[in-house]
Each structure stands twice: as C-alpha cells, then as structure tokens.
Write a structure and sequence with these properties.
This protein is mainly β and 70 residues long. Helices cover 7% and strands 31% of the residues. It has 1 helix and 4 strands. β2 and β3 form a beta hairpin. It is elongated.
C-alpha cells in the first residue's frame, strides 16, 4: 500500500483541442483614418498554435466564425 502512495500516476488524458473564434468587441479603434484590420492569435506555452484570418477594415466588431482543432 505504501508503494502505491508514492507512485505518481498521470491521469491527464490527451486529446484534441477545439477553439471556435466567433467575434470580437474591441474597445479602442487605434486606426485614426481607416477601420482596423483585427485578427486573433492563440498561444499555448508561448507558442502560436492558431491565427485567425484578418478581417480587413472591420473596426471594433469583427466576425470570424473560425474553428481551429489540433
């Protein structure tokens, strides 16, 4: 019984990660003369794993509706 208590058991399950990026509600428009070209970057442990398409001139309310799976 003591041996079992000292043994580390990895119970984490590996599987797919799915992220759906739907829309953005940005608070500041940083482009003075045109609309912003927003995009989303998702990082895991500091490494980029997903990048959305750029929504050209969509300003503060971009819509992506993109599903990423790894």
């Amino acid at each position: 019984v003591e041996e079992h208590k000292r043994k580390k058991v990895d119970t984490a399950k590996k599987g797919d990660l799915s992220i759906k990026i739907i829309l953005g509600e940005l608070t500041n428009d940083v482009d003075m003369f045109t609309e912003m070209d927003p995009f989303v970057i998702v990082k895991k442990d500091g490494v980029e794993v997903f990048k959305s398409k750029t929504e050209h001139e969509k300003g503060c309310f971009p819509v992506w509706n993109q599903l990423f799976t790894s």
